[in-house]
């Protein structure tokens, strides 16, 4: 027989919730990137801002599959940031053959020639910058940033960025751009003032590279591209 003094489970849960402290939402880090020199406004789309706390949280397995699409002889998106262990699919939306590959250290891969369709997938198990190319088309370039930190964002068109839910304490903020030297800034959270960071884009949009066999590309006239 149920006691008349027993509190219903729902009411008990409400009482406990009222007595417990609210869960911390985490710290916020915001700011704006600016371009130096003769860079174009749209170039900020190629940046990634990420924060690595000195005491990182427990790593969670990545969820879902990311995509980098080959379309009109280019990669979209050109820059993709993913957590370590993520799987990236490379669909082909062009009516021609592509051969997506990378020779970036332990994340190297070669998908071979494949036609229009769902494409093939790669799982990136090691942190680092993965430079992605097409073995058929020299000008096709993409970057996959494989990050150990779950705290990353790509800035808006005006360069503004915001990272939420950061743990308090010291850490390192990194600004990466395919055409700039990475910038790192030591920060202790909470940090009240928005940051203002300047990027100098002094690298070519298509970096010097060889094909997957380590040989120069050839253009339609049989001439070789320079490295």
Question: What does this entry look like structurally?
Answer:
The structure is a single chain. This protein is mainly beta. Helices cover 5% and strands 44% of the residues. It has one helix spanning 9-19, and strands at 27-36, 47-53, 65-67, 69-71, 74-76, 79-83, 87-92, 98-102, 109-114, 117-123, 128-134, 141-147, 151-153, 160-166, 169-177, 183-189, 195-200. It has a 5-stranded mixed sheet, with no helix packed on it. The protein has a 4-stranded antiparallel sheet with strand order 13-2-15-16, with no helix packed on it. Strands 14-1-17 form a 3-stranded mixed sheet, with no helix packed on it. The longest helix is centred in the N-terminal third of the chain and has 11 residues, at 9-19. The model is unreliable at 1-24 and 220-227 (pLDDT under 50).
């Amino acid at each position: 027989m149920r006691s008349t003094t027993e509190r219903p489970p729902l009411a008990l849960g409400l009482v406990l919730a009222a007595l417990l402290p609210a869960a911390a939402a985490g710290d916020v880090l915001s700011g704006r990137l600016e371009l130096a020199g003769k860079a174009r406004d749209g170039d900020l789309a190629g940046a990634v801002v990420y924060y690595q706390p000195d005491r990182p949280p427990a790593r969670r397995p990545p969820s879902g599959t990311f995509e980098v699409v080959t379309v009109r002889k280019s990669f979209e998106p050109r820059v993709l940031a993913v957590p370590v262990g993520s799987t990236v699919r490379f669909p082909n939306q062009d009516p021609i053959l592509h051969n997506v590959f990378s020779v970036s250290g332990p994340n190297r891969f070669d998908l071979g020639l494949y036609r229009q369709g769902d494409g093939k997938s790669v799982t990136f198990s090691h942190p680092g910058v993965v430079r992605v190319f097409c073995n058929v088309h020299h000008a096709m370039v993409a970057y996959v940033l494989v990050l150990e930190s779950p705290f990353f964002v790509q800035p808006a068109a005006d360069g503004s960025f915001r990272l939420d839910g950061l743990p308090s304490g010291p850490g390192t903020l990194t600004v990466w751009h395919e055409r700039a030297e990475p910038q790192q800034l030591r920060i202790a959270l909470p940090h009240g003032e928005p940051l203002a960071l300047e990027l100098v884009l002094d690298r070519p949009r298509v970096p010097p590279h060889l094909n997957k066999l380590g040989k120069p590309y050839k253009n339609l006239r049989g001439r070789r591209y320079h490295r």
